[in-house]
Specification:
A six-stranded mixed sheet has the order 3-6-9-12-14-15. The protein has a five-stranded parallel sheet with strand order 1-4-7-10-13. The chain is elongated, with a radius of gyration of 22 Å. 32% of the residues lie in helices and 16% in strands. By secondary structure, the chain is of the alpha/beta class. The chain is built from five helices and 15 strands. Strand 14 and strand 15 form a beta hairpin. The protein has two domains: 169 residues, UDP N-Acetylglucosamine Acyltransferase, domain 1 (3 Solenoid); 39 residues.
Length: 237
């Protein structure tokens, strides 16, 4: 997937990733001391070294200690590229056979999980510069192409081509409608509303058919007003 850089260079790249992608970061010292996502990544890098050198029990014990301390559960067998940034670092799970490329961003609640009890490759392969939104799940040995974005709470169960956007449950692949930021190379967080677009198109089609048949729209359209607010009756929750 990539040529592994030296460990020291990789640790430094992890810090730079946090500085580049978190506007709340004020200094390198703050990142090193107060970012549990960084601690989780660094802890995994040590655990992974133990894992590949055959010290499997020690690797698992270290990974579990890091999990307890940070809230991030990364199996020591997972392969993690340089510059991984885990923002807010709560509830992130990365399985044993997962592979994560360089300069990937994960938000809270992301799962890179498996769907099979069979041994072998059963977790996702994430390309370079991918962003995965809060609560998203990427399940099974699927491949997410470079420069893609997975929307918050999406569930991805099939391959994603490079430079795509995925939203919904199950995740729907959408061609990117605007280029990535030329300054940062990452997304601005704007994602399409597939359900809203589909409902809007359906409502316009119904209106056109009613105009054609009756000469008017017989029922007021059910759609949000110009200010984006839906009007309706109050109800108990």
């Amino acid at each position: 997937m990539r040529t592994e850089p030296g460990l020291r260079a990789t640790l430094g790249r992890d810090v730079e990733a946090a500085r580049e992608r978190d506007p709340a970061a004020r200094s390198t010292v703050e990142i090193v001391l107060a970012y549990p996502g960084l601690h989780a990544v660094w802890g995994h890098r040590i655990a992974h070294l133990l894992w590949v050198r055959g010290h499997r029990l020690a690797a698992r014990l270290l990974a579990e200690a890091v999990h307890v301390a940070t809230g991030v559960d990364i199996h020591p067998g997972a392969v993690i590229g340089a510059g991984l940034f885990i923002d807010h670092a709560t509830g992130v799970v990365i399985g044993e056979t997962a592979e994560v490329g360089d300069d990937v961003t994960l938000y809270q609640g992301v799962t890179l999980g498996g769907t099979s009890l069979e041994p072998g490759k059963r977790h996702p392969t994430i390309g370079h510069r991918v962003t995965i939104g809060a609560g998203a799940k990427v399940l099974g040995p699927v491949v997410v192409g470079d420069d893609s974005r997975i929307g918050a709470n999406a569930v991805v169960v099939r391959d994603v081509p490079p430079d795509a956007v995925v939203v919904g449950v199950p995740g729907q692949v959408i061609a990117r409608s605007r280029p990535r930021s030329p300054l940062t190379g990452i997304d601005d967080g704007v994602l399409p509303d597939l359900v809203g677009v589909s409902l809007g198109a359906l409502q316009r089609r119904v209106d056109a058919l009613e105009e054609e048949v009756h000469g008017r729209v017989s029922v007021p359209a059910i759609r949000p007003s110009d200010d984006g607010v839906w009007r309706g009756e109050d109800f108990s929750i």
